Amino acid sequence: MKKTFTLQRRRSPIGPVWLRCVLFAAASLCMGLAITGAMQWISIGTLPGVLEWVRDYPAHLAMTALLWAVPVYALGALTGRLWIAALPVGLLGLLLALVDYFKNAINGTPLELADFGLARQAGNVAGLAGDLTPPEDFYLAAAGLLFCVLVLLLTRRLTALEGTARARTCLFSLTLAGILLTGTGTRAVGGRLGVDFYTRMDPAENHSLHGLTLSLWRDAFPQPKTPPEGYDQDFMLEALERIDRLTEARPEPETAPNVLFILSESFYDLTRLPVLQYGGDPLKNFHALEAESVSGTFHSHYLGYGTGYLEIPMLYGLGALDLPPGTNICFQEPTVYQRFDALAEQFTKSGDYTAEMLHAYDNTLYNRTVTYPLLGFQKSYFSDEIQKMGIQREDGAYGGFYMRDGYFFQGMLERMKAVNETGKRAFLFGITMENHQPFEPQKFNYECQIPLIAPDFTPAQRDIIRVMLEGVTRADQALGELTAALRECEEPTIVVFFGDHRPNLFMPGGDTVYTLLGLCPENDTLNWTTEQINDLYSTDYLIWANDPALLGGLAGIRRDSSITALGPQLLELTGRPVSRYWALLEKVGEVCLTQTDLYFVDGAGRASFTREEAGLSPEALELLELRDAVVYDAVYGKRYITEQMNLPPGS
Fold first, then answer.
1. Within 10 Å of residue 75's Cβ, how many Cβ atoms?
2. CA-CA distances (angstroms) from residue 521 to 40, 208, 463, 526?
3. Could you tell me which residues are beta bridge partners of residue 544?
4. SS3 string of 491-550?
């Protein structure tokens, strides 16, 4: 009996109920602060950096700590023991911070809510990224959180809740959690603390100012997109009339060429980089073809990654800025991709084209097996299907870690031939992979066909640059093989060739080749100038034809293009009849090449941070306002004129 009494005394709570309730809440908040500090430590990389963030943004610290304290508080009330609750919640914070660190390591951009659309493919994404090693700060932060959990364990009798107190605390905690899980409640609490949950921000700026947790939370509760002033059916019918006055219907063109639309992974003219020199021209085919092509700077929305996120704007015309923050553009409801006729359908709706997509990797990423059929593609071919086409090459199907571009292009030619044999023309959208990250020194078996001259770089850094050099060289050689084959082909064919983004090129120590070359001050874009953004968020493109007449006398001209302008540019060049929607996008492309949270590029390639800073003419602003109205009507509104936008102008 004595032992039993002693055991009960050892396990019994200490202090009155009211004091334990207060200590329970205070300990939950302290654990929230600890999780916040640990995550910021992993994200920022130094404790002085964390302290600077705390000093500059105390309201952001308080709101973030509250967001982590509430689940600790609620789970602690449910279990009756705070230290038990702190373990899974703290682990979740550490995992989020680690994923954010890895995403920054892969492509120099922070974790966004939209990235959770790829959660099921996390293993494949990590495989494409190469070797991912947690930083030392991760283990130190984890040790700090574990120490905090240990303190909660040792002081558990001071915070133990039982009976009515536990039930009331549980009810209160769930009520508080419910408030924070609504946009109205979050904004109300945030407003009390002085946290802005309304203003849309570039992801890098959002992450830098608010920290990882709060930046993700802000994305989850965005301010609704503001409708155009006076939005109703009459307003949209008037907009339709204005669109018809600015655009015109086109007759069927006399020639219907095949179209090979090629997204070349991480391709760009690296000879424009300063300091680096080469023992030959790595883009000799591309440079020679420019004289026969429409070519120029290609303005992308990304640097280092984002291929799947730019395919939708390329083929459908909607960008991330048209959707709520945190929305993954590749994982919308199917009806979203069917509201407008896509680029491929501007060719296939006439009945004389077949549209197909070919990808040099598997079908696991970016929801392509769902979106491409909705965007008008009758068939998709991934790496396995391409290898079943019977293609013979002495160097085999694979180069480096992925399918060779040359092998892939032969697959495109096989499909073009097969489609032509049915009496139709081919519209083929191809996505290469040979030059995809990771840019590890052993990727191409340490081979580099063109000597690199980079005396200011270490041997380890030169090894990584050589991988970039070899990848771009191979992409250029494959382009040369493709165009050589098409010169011998009797079927009229247009090739649209562009780099989706530049490679990230992270070096040992965390710098990129771009920071080492002085092209930007740091990896984080927060302090970049518009000129630096516009330079590094651009690649190169060309539109070439095996019959110069298909280019309408434009061969050899230079013209800036972009993710959202290249499709309309092709339609203009081929003279395809287009819907009102694509006719409007053609006009918009003349005044706006890129518009994202990060920056704005006008039709001449000049960059500003926002549309308002660009100094646009009233005519240009009218076009952008019309596009905004059409997109709002289709995505958020009543779709008063969405069906009419899929008809030719004047219908």
1. 21
2. 21, 15, 23, 10
3. 495
4. CCEEEEEEECCCCCCECCCCCEHHHHCCCCCCCCHHHCCHHHHHHHCEEEEEEEECCHHH
Rounded Cα distance between 606 and 396, Å, is 44
Name the residue type at position 18: W
Q: Find out whether 26 and 66 touch, Cβ atoms under 8 Å.
A: no
- pLDDT value of position 107: 63
* Residue 597 DSSP one-character state: S
Kindly state the tokens that stand for 593: 């090449």
- C-beta of residue 141 within 8 angstroms of C-beta of residue 38: yes
CA 143 – CA 140 distance, rounded (Å): 5
Q: Which helix (H) or strand (E) holds 293?
A: none
8 A C-beta contact, residue 350 and residue 341:
no
On whether the CB atoms of residues 224 and 625 are closer than 8 A, the answer is no
Model confidence over 192-201: pLDDT tens digits?
Answer: 888 887 777 7
Determine the Cα–Cα distance for residues 178 and 173; give it in Å rounded to an integer: 9
CA atoms within 13 A on the CB side of 250: 19
Nearest to 86 by CA among 156, 138, 140: 156
Please give the C-alpha separations between residue 617 and each of 504, 516, 620, 621, in angstroms, as whole numbers: 36, 39, 5, 6
Helix (H, G, I), strand (E, B) or coil at 110: coil
Collapsing DSSP states into helix, strand and coil, what is residue 43? helix
- Hey, what are 343's tokens? 């680029």
DSSP code for 558: B
Phi then psi for residue 120, to 5 deg, are -70, -20
Q: Name the DSSP class of 151.
A: H
Burial profile 342-378: b = 16 or more Cβ within 10 angstroms, e = fewer? bbbbbbbbeeebbbbbbbbbebbbbbbeebbeebbbe
Tell me the three state secondary structure of residue 258.
Answer: strand
Question: pLDDT category, 540, cuts 50, 70, 90?
Answer: very high
- Alpha-carbon gap, residue 44 to 82, rounded angstroms: 28
Q: Are 99 and 111 contacting, i.e. CB atoms less than 8 angstroms apart?
A: yes
Quick one: average pLDDT of 153-167?
85
**What residue has token string 């001449």?**
604
SS3 of residue 294 by DSSP = strand
3-state SS class at 452 = strand
Of the pLDDT bands very low, low, confident and very high (cuts 50, 70, 90), residue 6 is: very low
Identify whether the C-beta of residue 586 lies closer than 8 Å to the C-beta of residue 571.
yes
Q: What is the mean pLDDT of the chain?
A: 90
569-584 pLDDT, tens digit per residue, is 999 999 999 999 999 9
Q: How many helices (H) and strands (E) does the chain have?
A: 25, 15
Q: Which of 258, 32, 42 is nearest to 135 (CA)?
A: 42
Asked which of 135-144, 181-190, 269-278 is least confident by mean pLDDT, the reply is: 181-190
Cα separation, 60 vs 83, whole angstroms = 25
Cis check: omega of the bond before 325, within 30 degrees of 0: no
